[in-house]
Amino acid sequence: MHKQKRKISTTAVLAMILLSLGPVGSVTAQPPPKDPNKYVPGLGDLMGSLLVQHNKLWFAGDAMNWPLAAYSVDAIKEGIADMKVLRPRYKGESIVEMLDGLTAKPMQDLEEAVAAKDSARFVQAYDGLTQSCNVCHQNHEYGFIVIARPTVPFLTNQRYQP
Ligand code: HEC
To answer: How far is the CA of 75 from the centre of ligand 1 (A)?
Structure first.
């Protein structure tokens, strides 16, 4: 009796699964293709390109290639500005406030160091920015994403020497 009951319920479950799959051979409704014009990169994607710019900036400053360093600082500023527009909120919190609060000062220090062509200040400001990356990661349970001074350029086909 017990066995019989179990068999019936297994059959019922199977029937339900088959029903939910729809008639065999039918074309399942597909979501329309994503409109590429409406693609919005995730915060992680935007962070990935920030990582590249962070790497490039180090080698530009290290080589005292100040025009290139200024360009890299601008690229980071743009990357941060993009995040504020494209991903203004993250898990219910304002990214705009977090980014401003943490990165505004180190970014200003970097701009000033590069404009002054001052290597010592550049290194200090660079480390300040790196620290702001890590503080935010730590505050958002991403303490395992640790940003550091790079030791090799991201790619080797761009020259950093002025
Ligand atoms: C305002 C807070 C904040 C600041 C400042 C910040 N991050 Fe992030 N970062 C995050 C969050 C949140 C994530 C996780 C995003 C996700 O995966 O959805 C993240 C993820 C990342 C990742 C992982 C992305 C991946 O796909 O591998 C990298 C790399 C990264 N950040 C680099 C940086 C760098 C470099 C800086 C500084 C120049 C920086 N971040 C500054 C909040 C921040």
So the answer is: 16
The number of beta carbons lying within 10 Å of the beta carbon of residue 160 is: 16
Residue with token string 């950093």: 160
Q: Computed over its alpha carbons, how large is the radius of gyration of the chain?
A: 25
In whole angstroms, give the CA distance from residue 126 to residue 110.
7
List of residues 6+ apart from 144 with CB closer than 8 A: 137
137, 151, 45, 83 alpha-carbon torsion, rounded to 10°: 60
Nearest CA to ligand 1 atom 15: 44
Is 103 touching ligand 1 by the criterion CB < 6 Å?
A: yes
Residue pLDDT tens, the chain, 162 long: 454 455 555 555 444 544 454 444 445 566 656 676 778 899 999 999 999 999 999 999 999 999 999 999 999 999 999 999 999 988 888 888 999 999 999 999 999 999 999 999 999 999 999 999 999 999 999 999 999 999 999 999 999 999
